[in-house]
Amino acid sequence: MKLQKRSAFGWGASGAARANPTRGLVVHYDGSNQGLARKAHSACVSYWKATRQFHMGPARGWADIGYSYGACPHGYVMEGRGLGRIQAAQPGGNDTWYSCTLMSGPGEDPTPAQIDAVRQLRQWLMGKGVAGAVRGHRDFIPTSCPGDRLYRLVKNGTFSKAPSKEDDDMKLSDTVKIKDWVRKRWPKDEGLADGAISVNTALGSGYAFSRAAAEGVERLVPLVEAQGAAIREMAAALAARDEAVDVDALVARITEQIERVTVRLD
After folding, report:
1. Do residues 201 and 190 touch, judged by C-beta distance below 8 A?
2. Of 13, 46, 84, 151, which is least packed with CB atoms within 10 Å of its CB?
3. Which pLDDT score, from 0 to 100, does residue 177 have?
4. How far apart are the first and last CA of the chain?
5. What is the pTM (predicted TM-score) of this model?
């Protein structure tokens, strides 16, 4: 789980009262579209800080940000009040359930990384003695929260599934689409093509850009070797001008070698 602690935002310990929520996790949303999936992760950090400022300001006057945690579109879980604290998120369940707000609004679907962040948070909480139940804010009081889109995912069990497993241990024999592999680890930067990576995104997402480059080169090695072998064979055949060259057989041989490489770049 990519957890960003309160200290990462410059916050000290929560001033909220102690509690022991054990019944499960409640899903929330913001109520207005945020567009954070199209922005760099730094925008999510700014949003989280602004939410806390609003909750502690004159409009609310709460002791801290209202939620236990937040899940951003880039797959980060951000600590709000955190473990063992009463919340201001769902009246009737503030001291018995943990809360997690997805940083989105009614017109936005959660990203796959965001859904997985909620699943990872749920699994992590279960490891601390919290039940695995998932509810929506509207299960406690009449409200539109967490919106129809998220509430459907609550009801159909999407958030209650086990989190996906990272495929960092891929072997050279694995079949993989590089574009999908890139998109899974780095969200799109605004203005970049689908699946593209920028250095800022790689570093901001907590992944070393050098590691990505190294893994990418590793997966290209068999392809380059196959192409090199084919080129050498072609060169040798053409050099032997006193012998007939069976072009069809040569092309078939090249195709066979390339097809043996299971790493796909499409």
Report:
1. no
2. 13
3. 45
4. 29
5. 0.63
Beta strands at 98-102 and 25-29: parallel, antiparallel or unpaired: parallel
- CA 105 vs. chain centroid, Å, equals 18
CA R_g for the chain: 25
Number of residues in the chain:
266
Please write the tens of the pLDDT for every residue from 108-143: 999 999 999 999 999 999 999 999 999 999 999 999
* DSSP assignments along 146-214, one per residue: THHHHHHHHHTTGGGSPPPPP-TT--TTS-EEHHHHHHHHSPPPTTSPTT---HHHHHHTT--HHHHHH
Residue with tokens 């769902």: 90
Residue owning tokens 């995104």: 201
Which residues have C-beta within 8 Å of that of residue 183, sequence separation ≥ 6?
194, 195
